[in-house]
Amino acid sequence: MSTPLDFEATWLALREPADARSRNPLLEARLRAALDARSRTCAAVDLGSGTGANLRYLAPRLRGLRWTAVDRSAAHLAAARLPPGLSVETRVLDLATELEAALTPSPKLAAASAFLDLVSAAWVARLVAATERSWVFIVLTVDGRITLSPDLPGDEAILSALARDMRTEKLAGEALGGEAAATLVAKARAAGRRAWIAPSDWHLGPADEALQRELLGGYARVARRWLPAGRVEAWYAARRAALEAGTSRIRVGHQDVLVAPRSKASS
Questions:
Q1: Residue 15: CB partners within 8 Å, gap ≥ 6?
Q2: Are 242 and 150 in contact (CB under 8 A)?
Q3: What's the mean pLDDT in 221-241?
Q4: Of 88, 163, 259, 266, which shows the fewest CB atoms inside 10 Å?
Q5: Strands 135-149 and 249-259
């Protein structure tokens, strides 16, 4: 029998290739340049690490950092596949209530992936305050833009339901949903820090059939909370038919954000 944890691990594995090809290369290059030779012996924390996809991507590209993976699921951390030769400390913490503990002592880099849209504005303010001396690199935050092709009856209602659901309570109060990345940038700049934002959209086509199938199934599950079941099922059946015909394409808007440490001049 599958469990919610099994389902989540399956979803994380399905999305990893799309995440890897969608990350914004310009922000990644800016961060790599900022982490000079002296900083490469410093600490880095991966928040909401799950089964380690963000670590698998970043560690080979930002060599020499001492990584700590933080997640509320000990099972996910235990199942993480890490790059050969990489030693990672793991900490089981609930980031809703233990964010500051996860960032103590202050790391050189605080990173996260596909996470920020689940938290509140108050949580983002805590993140900015707790990372005053850290680089912050949070990638693949959904921004609410979803384009489904071909256009089908019911798309507008389903997407409206998804937008409503994104703003319900998730990990730490009312979730920011599509406003999360922009909120981080605004709060960081208000605190006197430099911040950059750039798109990292998914572009899913026929080669991503398995990921599209899971994504559409997730959309249907969420929409049933807000719309009559029959209406959702009719839409879902039409979408599955397009997927099986090889005509389905989905664009999901994401944003990557890089925040610099607060400079001494702005203190």
A1: 53, 114, 211
A2: yes
A3: 97
A4: 266
A5: antiparallel
Q: In order of start, what are the domains of the chain with their CATH numbers?
A: 4-144+171-205+253-261 (3.40.50.150)
Q: What is the DSSP string of 166-202?
A: HTSB-SBSB--GGGHHHHHHHHHHHTT--EEEEE--E
Look at the alpha carbons of 110, 95, 54, 253 in this order and tell me if their dihedral is positive or negative.
Answer: negative
Q: Select from 96, 198, 193, 187 the least CA-distant residue to 143.
A: 198
pTM for this structure?
Answer: 0.92
User: How far is 181 from 265, CA to CA, in rounded Å?
Assistant: 25
Which residues, other chains included, contact 190 with Cβ-Cβ below 8 Å and sequence gap of 6+?
A: none
Alpha helices in 42-191 (DSSP H): 53-58, 74-79, 95-102, 121-130, 155-166, 180-190
Check if the beta carbon of residue 123 is closer than 8 Å to that of residue 252: no
pLDDT, tens digit, 9 for 90 and up, residues 155-184 = 999 999 999 998 887 776 888 999 999 999
> What are the tokens at 43?
């600490």
pLDDT of residue 39: 56
Residue 81: the pLDDT is 85
Q: Beta strands of the chain (E only): which ranges?
A: 43-47, 66-71, 89-92, 109-113, 135-149, 195-199, 202-204, 249-259
Residue 180 and residue 119: Cα distance in Å, rounded? 8
What pLDDT was estimated at residue 40? 59
Q: What distance in Å separates the CA atoms of residue 258 and residue 181, rounded to the nearest whole number?
A: 10
6 pLDDT above the threshold of 50: no
Asked whether the predicted pLDDT for residue 265 surpasses 80, the reply is no
